Amino acid sequence: MREIILDSDGLRGILAEIFSNGGSFPFKALGGSMYPALRNGDVLLVEAIPATNLALGDVVVFRRIDGGLVAHRVVAKALRESQWRLSVRGDTRRDAEDVPEDNVVGRVVAVKRGDKLMQPPTSSRRIIGILRYKVLLLLQWATRIIRK
Asked: What is the pTM assigned to this prediction?
């Protein structure tokens, strides 16, 4: 596979063309924030999806403010001022990031690891990831109450 480096505008244009034709695009995962569900070097197949159709536990690719693309799990979703906002977090991370729907590139629909093509990580790890995040929120809330 040949790698191409694009600026944000170039990437947006290419993705819009791919998605408007019902296509998907490969995204190479780098780093360990989603380990063990996703591993460094996995190739993720990403398809466009409206934010309204995303579910808790879905793995999404989104654009950060600096233009970089990141794959993290949806741990919360809320409609604020007529726009969907997602809370996403890597499975190995404690803190979630707030992502506006305009920054969501798509949902991971398949993972290629070596010669194997697998379904995206939606097993018990997904549920454990969501529960872990909710427990962390509860502990933060409890800590604030106790300190008062």
From this structure: 0.73
